[in-house]
Amino acid sequence: MAIERLQFLEILKDSYSAYYNIIPPEEAAAPAELPLAFRADYFSRDERYWLTKNIPIWGNETNEYAYIFSAPAFDADLAERCMSWAIDDMLPRVKPHKEHQYTNVKVILVADRTEEETRRAVQRRSFSKSYRFSLHGFTTLHAAIVDLSESRAWPNKAGYALADYFKKLFASRAEKT
Q1: What torsion do the CA atoms of 6, 12, 18, 20 make, to the nearest 10 degrees?
Q2: What is the pLDDT along the chain (177 residues), one digit of tens a residue?
């Protein structure tokens, strides 16, 4: 039983809103030809001190920018443009420094149905960048295309955790119905 795309986007937005800041497409300034549903920003900083906050032992920053695109169907060209735009939009936001661990970009393409060629294009797409030989962190692309008619997601190699995330999301929805 397939889920409607708008309903699924609300479930996805609700899921992301627990830890992420939700940015509407108007504020994200996506080009009109790209079907951006919303952007979600996540920022985390951990620190340890010795005796007082004046004596830091270490600090660690991890950030993530998730771009969720929604369309009835994606062809390989549109999927590539969405992923490329998300990377280009995210890179100026990265502020590498010695306590920066990573800033990842997630691209999730939500479609009513998908074609095999588009799935393969998303699965083959990769991007990684290190800052000062990874001493100041790195950036990786985590991408997945979600087929609502099959209730399944196809991630790229770096986005393998997205497949588990969507399995759980679809399973929790199935339990409710």
Answers
A1: -100
A2: 478 899 999 999 999 999 999 999 888 888 888 999 999 999 998 989 888 888 888 889 999 999 999 999 999 999 999 999 999 999 999 999 998 989 999 999 999 999 999 999 999 999 999 998 888 999 999 999 999 999 999 999 999 999 999 988 888 776 666
> Cα–Cα distance between 80 and 151 in angstroms, integer?
22
Please give the Cα distance from 145 to 118 (Å, whole number).
8
Give backbone dihedrals phi and psi of 106, rounded to 5 degrees, phi first: -110, 135
Closest C-alpha among 120, 109, 118, 56 to residue 85: 109
Each domain of the chain, given as residue ranges in start order, spans 5-176
